[in-house]
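Renewal narrative, Specific Aim 1. Our central claim is that a sequence can be written position by position from structural information alone. The example that follows is taken directly from our test logs and has not been curated for this report. It begins with the structure tokens describing the chain, in the order in which they were read.
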């Protein structure tokens, strides 16, 4: 529930006002960096924001839990919302505007246009969550048109999302530079995620298996294993007998085309999605084996 008291001056809720702000930045020849988020901000998000602050004259962060990227049985209703905290964190960093539209502002009655990248969206998360990337590209293109950034910042934790956005930017000739930011992790290796909030202490411990399985895969590859099947089997073994855990996918592929690899040679993406208790968590790493 969002209290109106939470809203401060840097928060912009209307598209018209956000467009006015971005137009004024342009008129002053100031470059704009943009960080789209769904809120519940952690150090991963804040690292993207710091990158934008360093790269651009002005930084806009959006907070919008985008309903169109959630499937019918997913966690849209329970997705963590912490607007007051988020605003405090962003204001402390010195962002210039926080775009926080409501659902009707973004999707008024009669909204009937979607943007969809073909091909790479059929693998990994696109396979398990068929609504995801169409929702992501549609909302990100809308946000780009509203904020009109010179640079946008996305995290490599969502490796496939980044590739899908880069494909959209290239295919639709958008004038925005996409900046990749490395995964930010807890000291014990767990990739930061808003969905970590749902985890009980036991589940938090279990969730460590995602990053551990990637570390062990990397060690096994360094020791000379090249078979993707063997690596995937060892990774899967780590999740066996863990209570409340369901592996969605463990996939080894080319990091750009997402074509599955049988042999780990050249630059390779290892990605996984695992449901731990109520949270569907993702993680990935790149290995370079020549
Ligand atoms: P979200 O709010 O989950 O939609 O994420 C907003 C942006 O933050 C996306 O570009 C994510 O890839 C990025 N992000 C989320 N978690 C991390 C992380 N642990 N490290 C780096 N970037 C992240």
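The sequence written for that structure reads:
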């Amino acid at each position: 529930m969002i209290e109106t008291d939470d809203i401060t001056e840097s928060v912009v809720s209307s598209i018209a006002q956000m467009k006015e702000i971005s137009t004024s930045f342009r008129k002053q020849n100031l470059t704009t960096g943009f960080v789209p988020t769904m809120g519940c901000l952690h150090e991963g998000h804040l690292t993207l924001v710091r990158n934008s602050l360093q790269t651009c004259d002005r930084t806009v962060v959006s907070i919008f839990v985008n309903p169109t990227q959630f499937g019918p049985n997913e966690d849209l209703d329970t997705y963590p919302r912490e607007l007051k905290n988020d605003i405090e964190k962003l204001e402390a960093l010195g962002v210039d505007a926080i775009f926080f539209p409501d659902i009707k502002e973004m999707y008024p009655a009669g909204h009937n246009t979607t943007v969809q990248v073909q091909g790479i969206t059929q693998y990994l998360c696109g396979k398990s969550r068929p609504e995801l990337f169409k929702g992501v590209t549609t909302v990100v293109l809308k946000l780009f048109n509203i904020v009109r950034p010179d640079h946008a910042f996305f995290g490599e934790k969502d490796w496939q999302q980044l590739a899908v956005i880069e494909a959209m930017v290239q295919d639709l000739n958008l004038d925005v530079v996409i900046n990749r930011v490395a995964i930010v992790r807890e000291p014990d290796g767990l990739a930061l995620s808003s969905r970590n909030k749902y985890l009980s202490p036991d589940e938090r411990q279990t969730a460590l298996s995602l990053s551990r399985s990637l570390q062990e895969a990397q060690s096994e590859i360094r020791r000379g294993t090249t078979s993707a099947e063997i690596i995937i089997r060892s990774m899967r073994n780590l999740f066996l007998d863990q209570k409340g855990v369901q592996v969605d996918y463990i996939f080894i592929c080319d990091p750009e085309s997402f074509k599955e690899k049988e042999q780990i040679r050249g630059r390779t993406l290892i990605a996984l999605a695992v449901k731990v208790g109520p949270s569907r968590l993702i993680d990935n790493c790149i290995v370079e084996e020549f």
